[in-house]
Structures are given as C-alpha cells and as structure tokens.
User: What shape does this take?
Amino acid sequence: MKFFIDTANLDQIREAAALGVLDGVTTNPSLMAKEGITGRNNILKHYVDICNLTDGDVSAEVIATDFKKIIAEGEELADLHEQIVVKVPMIRDGVKALKYFSDKGIRTNCTLVFSAGQALLAAKAGASYVSPFIGRLDDISTDGLNLISEIRQIYDNYEFETEILAASIRHTMHVIDCAKLGADVMTGPLSAIMGLLNHPLTDIGLEKFLADYKKGN
Ligand code: E4P
Assistant: This one.
C-alpha cells in the first residue's frame, strides 16, 4: 500500500518524508487555502516546493469546471514538474478531461468520488488514480469503507489499472481497514500515519528492556 499525505503543509510533508515511508502528497484547494497559499503564481510555486520534498506523486487540483479550461489548467500543472498528477473533479467535463489527459499521457487523480458508479466511469476514462472520500461518507452515516470494497471488486473483475486512492482518511483505523480491503494507496493527515506507530505494550516493553539493561551496566 502506498502512503500519501493529505496536506499542503511543508513541515508535515518533511516530517512524513523523514520517516521514510512517504510515497506522495495530495492537496486540494481547501488545504492550500489553509496554509495561506493564494494567487496563481504562489500556488504554482507551492506545488513545485512540495515536489522538491518527495520523490513521489503530487496531486494538484484544477479549479476549472468546463472542459477547455480544465485542459488548459491541467496542462499548465502537468508542465510544472514530472511528479505532478492532475486532480480532476468527478463531473461531466471532468470525465471528458480524464480521457483527454489519459490519451496524452498526462497522469490524473479523479477526485470527489462517492459511488462505485463514479469510480467505474473514472476507470473507463483512464484515470491513473480514483479518490473515494471515505471520511465524508462516514460523516453522513454512510459506510465509506464499503465503497472501497465495491471499487476493489469492480476494478479486479475487469483488471482496470486505475489505482484506488482511499481519501478523506480521518484516523489510523481507516488506514488499516483500507489496507485490509486492498486499497492501492491511502491519503491522510500526518496523525493517521504516525498513529500506526503506537501500542502501549511497545512502550511498556521498551521501558522494561532499557531498565533491565541499566541494572546490569
Ligand atoms: C483527497 O485528495 C482530499 O484532499 C481529501 O482526502 C479530503 O479529505 P477531507 O474530507 O478530510 O477534507
């Protein structure tokens, strides 16, 4: 399973990368705004800064919602850096754009996916990644993890190469459950990744080992 961090915060990206387990980064317009990154030039520069902190894929989202503008914006983003993956929303013109980008060899991440039907369409259009938002489904009392299983089954049935990028991960158990269900990638906050480290028996065991070592030395 690949680990992506879902943030535009450079310090958090550095921290995840320093652990040695980071495979990429996803961003969205809300995450960029949260870091105070505004204005087209600053946004483009920030994507390049992120690319320089990781060897992996960096999803950069288009703002446009009509086909021609999505294409223009996506091509500008893809030209920024070879690690950029163009993030396109699951809307009618977005699906057309996914196909266009796929035919041109530009990699894409289809975002805001909330149903198996949308995921099927994204794969048919040649998306490199599909991003089902499991946390937001859970927020409305729907089973986000079930969507991961449905997409896994559909993609396996037809050997689609689109990677399932479990998104809107909120906590460590989401990461573990998505791994059990066969998601190819998960993207979540730093806390969800770091939470994988924790077990009280590890802490108790280490404390005892170190105390016993001190007794004899
Ligand atoms: C995915 O690429 C999105 O950036 C993200 O996972 C959304 O998560 P949220 O529902 O926590 O905002």
Q: What stands out?
A: The beta strands are 2-6, 24-26, 57-61, 84-89, 108-113, 129-132, 163-166, 185-188. The radius of gyration is 19 Å. Residues 28 and 61 are 6 Å apart (CA to CA).
